[in-house]
Amino acid sequence: MSAPSAKDSDQPTAAEYSRPAQERVASLTALRQYLKLKDETRKTQKARQNNTFCFVQQRPDHPSNPDPNVWMVWLNGGEIVNMGWYVYSSHNLTKEDAKANGESLARMKAIHLATDVRETPEEIFGSSFLVERAWVDRLLTQCKAKGRKVNVRPLR
Known about the structure:
By secondary structure, the protein is of the alpha+beta class. Helix content is about 25%, strand content about 20%. It contains three helices and eight strands. The chain has helices spanning about 30-40, 95-105, 135-145, and strands spanning about 15-20, 50-60, 70-75, 80-85, 110, 115-120, 130, 150. The strands form two sheets. Strands 1, 2, 3, 4, 5 and 8 form a six-stranded antiparallel sheet that branches. A two-stranded parallel ribbon has the order 6-7. Helix 1 packs across helix 2 (about 95-105). It starts with 16 loop residues before the first strand and ends with a strand.
């Protein structure tokens, strides 16, 4: 499942979103690794700040795929990542597994709120990575209402 394109007439409704189970949310260690890799590639220092992530689950878009889809919203970084239906194992997770999870997340295609959001469907026409503001607003509203928030404080 990807972000809706300009051609999507049946936008998701509030009922299609829910709070994901804990095993569908990246661990604190994985999120720290995510921030570390983002800092390395962008030459930033976000990992030295408090960061908030919000995870919201969306009902599958097709009956043949029974697994729900999870979106990760990095509130401080202005990004949305489609995590798909990947299940994280936060229990008994080794340091290496957490690192791999965080690096995998950091390499996923992200929707950058500052550059990839357009006001109208006409501005998106033909793009596979631009999204409409109405879709972003709906996702952010559902994340706030139903999402699972994870706060990542910097390590001292």
